[in-house]
Amino acid sequence: MRPPRFRSPLRGPWLTSVLGAVLLGCLPLVIVTGLLDYVAYGPGQGIPADVGPLHLPAFDWPTRPSWLFRLTQGLHVGLGLVLVPVVLAKLWSVIPKLFTRTPGRALVHALERTSLLLLVGSILFEIVTGLLNIQYDYAFGFSFYTGHYLGAWVFIASFVVHVALKLPRMVRALRSRSLRAELTTPGTAPESPDDTGLVAADPAPPTLSRRGFLGVVGGGSLLVAVLTAGQTIGGPLRDLALLLPRGREPGDGPNGFPINRTAAAAGITVAGWRLVLNGAVERTLTRDDLLALPQYTARLPIACVEGWSTVQTWTGVRLRDLAALAGVTQPSSAHVKSIEDGPFASATLTAGQVTDPDALLALRVNGADLSLDHGYPARIIVPALPGVHCTKWVRSLDFPDPR
Q1: Alpha carbon separation from 34 to 37, 112, 156, 181, 282 (Å, rounded)
Q2: What is the total count of domains within the chain?
Q3: Which InterPro entries does UniProt cross-reference here (predicted)?
Q4: Largest CB tally within 10 Å, which of 49, 257, 342, 381?
Q5: CA distance 183 to 181
Q6: Residues 289 and 220 both lie in one domain
Q7: Structure pTM?
Q8: Claim to verify: residue 212 and residue 267 sit in the same structural domain
Q9: 8 closest CA partner among 203, 165, 244
Q10: Other C-beta atoms lying within 10 Å of the C-beta of residue 126
């Protein structure tokens, strides 16, 4: 089979390098925020599952500032989505390279193609799994957390190798033309042929200038930003989050804010509910017993792995007060168990998360009782804690007795 003929006069080292520079400046932030989110989720809790030597060093995820996880997860998902048009444009710009050969350099050619395959394959895997996780409820036949995390490390390794190999060439290409001149030039003349294989030998007549091409890509990224930013920023922009259906407001009233799992989906029944506290002593409390205890109110965000977040006013009993009721005055941790089954049925909180003055077993939100979908009779809310660990429908709290 003969390789296809790529004749666009837009392609060339300069255009590819401009797109590459944008990705080089932004993708490290996506990588860092993703790894921080991995630490926030706490590998010891099984999300993601055992990943062998790829585990990062563990440390206690802080509770301050309270919007920390909201920021890292919002940047990771939001910026990742905004870069999708740039990634696709970059892949379009280098398609001819997939069909070129390097005579006499078979080994080098094979290594380059292998690294390119891993780079392209891993970034497409990350984009597709990330988008499916946002759009659909648990759409995978495998753990999204584990798959996305392992895919991220394949991408990181191939990205580092690719940058090391291509950075000098990219710098030379960027210096070959003026960005300002290209953005003010309505026409398009093909770039000078070189050994990259990107410049067409017999370019077709232009149908779009480089300025227009960059405008289309930038406009696509801007449109994605407009249609996604509201999931994190909130306010009037939240109704514009058309690409993130579960990040939009689901209704009105005190409980009218997003959820990622309904009570019906979790198979929840709360008849005869009691909360069990385990520590130096065991205590069993009804919801009325909890309401009779000192109540505290905190305005705190809750953020989800899907990228959406919201800030609400929560009221309930401090976790450290519940630890004291169980006879543990200096809790080192807390193990939370829910009525529901499955991977989100339990969570482990660190000492700092338990003792934070705003860490609550929430009973009410925005002045009203929690709805069943939001965790009634009681749920966890801790500053800066990932939403998946703000366990709903809590049935027990275990505080290890230091004695």
Answers
A1: 5, 27, 11, 37, 39
A2: 2
A3: Mopterin_OxRdtase_euk, OxRdtase_Mopterin-bd_dom, OxRdtase_Mopterin-bd_sf
A4: 381
A5: 5
A6: no
A7: 0.90
A8: no
A9: 203
A10: 20
Does some domain include residue 254?
no
- pLDDT exceeds 90 at position 343: no
Average pLDDT over residues 189-203: 83
State which of 204, 226, 248 marks the end of a domain.
226
Complete DSSP assignment for 28-39: HHHHHHHHHHHH
Of 173, 200, 226, at which residue does a domain stop? Answer: 226
* Dihedral-angle region of residue 393 (phi above 0 means left; psi in -120 to 50 means alpha; beta otherwise): left
Both 267 and 388 in a single domain?
Answer: yes
Average pLDDT score, the chain = 89
Whole-angstrom CA distances from 162 to 121, 169, 257 are 13, 11, 43
Rg (CA), the chain: 26
Inform me whether the pLDDT recorded for 103 exceeds 60.
no
